[in-house]
Write a structure and sequence with these properties.
CATH architecture of the largest domain: Alpha-Beta Barrel
Number of helices: 7
Distance between the termini: 38 Å
Strand content: 15-25%
Number of domains: 2
Largest sheet: 4 strands, antiparallel
Structural class: alpha+beta
CATH class of the largest domain: Alpha Beta
Length: 303
């Protein structure tokens, strides 16, 4: 579940705590987490390294270590990073002990993940990191290159629903189910609208909606629906500000009509079909030779 705002929240909280410290101890308890490396291999590579910076790209948390070594961590659906936890948190998959810094005490970290989907990819060198991320991620929504022209370009000719395209990380990094629903509502676009059918005005509205939804999530320090927590275990608050997501049957904040839940691209999707009109189906016309007189007919929209 952690999307761009949740991962950015973790980064902002964790970076001041870990940057400049050395990894004194690390124990990988789940062999699935570092695949294809074995736990002992990644432990050996990270132990003793100083954490230079903690970054983020899309939904990846990037641990940049001395010696041009990088750990690309993905929290997937249920991952969290807890700092100075009381005791042993449930579902701990990785333990770390970071050394002292400027008179401060040591720091214990626990990476937890109930469903075990999270990963830690070790990459040697900046070029390897760049290739890894570029192969998986498109543009960041906060990048200056994220314009309505970019949206029109990556969606040109696509008949897939616009929501499916927003969830495709290769085209737009960091947007997941929550923020796609919120952005489409802000842009007054139905999730089933064909991605390639957007006008310039609709592409501009969608760009603004994506940025606004993500920024609202960051300002609220993420949404805690299931397992997402801050590094101190506190829940985010964006779930209390949803405009449509998870609000099936409740009144729309704009028009008062009931929010509906539908399925788009296999994902539960929330929409106000008054404010976000459902796209009209095109009626397929028979070939000219099958019509009286053999004359082409103008396409008409279904009611």
């Amino acid at each position: 579940m952690p999307e761009l705002p949740e991962v950015e929240t973790i980064r902002r909280q964790l970076a001041p705590l870990v940057e400049g410290r050395r990894i004194e101890q690390i124990e990988v308890l789940d062999p699935r987490w570092p695949r294809p490396l074995a736990p002992a291999e990644i432990e050996s590579a990270l132990r003793g390294r100083r954490i230079e910076t903690l970054g983020r790209r899309g939904k990846y948390l990037l641990w940049n270590l001395e010696g041009d070594l990088h750990l690309a961590q993905h929290l997937r659906m249920t991952g969290s990073v807890l700092a100075q936890p009381d005791g042993e948190p449930a579902h701990t998959r990785v333990r770390m002990l970071l050394g002292r810094r400027a008179g401060e005490g040591k720091v214990r970290l626990a990476i937890t993940d109930p469903r075990r989907f999270g990963t830690g990819e070790l990459l040697l060198g900046t070029d390897a990191l760049t290739l890894f991320l570029d192969a998986r991620l498109g543009l960041e929504p906060f990048d200056e290159g994220f314009t309505w022209e970019y949206l029109r370009l990556v969606m040109r000719g696509r008949t897939a629903p616009i929501k499916a395209m927003l969830l495709d990380q290769r085209r737009l990094a960091g947007v997941g189910n929550i923020y796609a629903d919120e952005a489409l509502f802000m842009a007054r676009l139905h999730p089933l609208r064909a991605a390639g059918s957007l006008t310039r005005a609709q592409a501009e509205a969608l760009r603004e909606g994506v940025i606004a939804a993500l920024q609202a999530g960051i300002d609220a320090r993420g949404a805690s629906i299931d397992d997402f927590r801050h590094i101190d275990g506190v829940r985010g608050s964006f779930q209390d500000r949803f405009l449509v997501h998870l609000r099936a049957g409740e009144p729309c904040v704009r028009c008062g009509r009931a929010i509906r839940k539908i399925v788009v691209a296999g994902r539960g999707t929330y929409v106000c079909e008054h404010c976000q009109p459902r796209p009209r189906r095109r009626v397929r016309q028979p070939p000219p030779e099958a019509r009286p007189g053999g004359r082409p007919a103008r396409p008409r929209a279904a009611p």
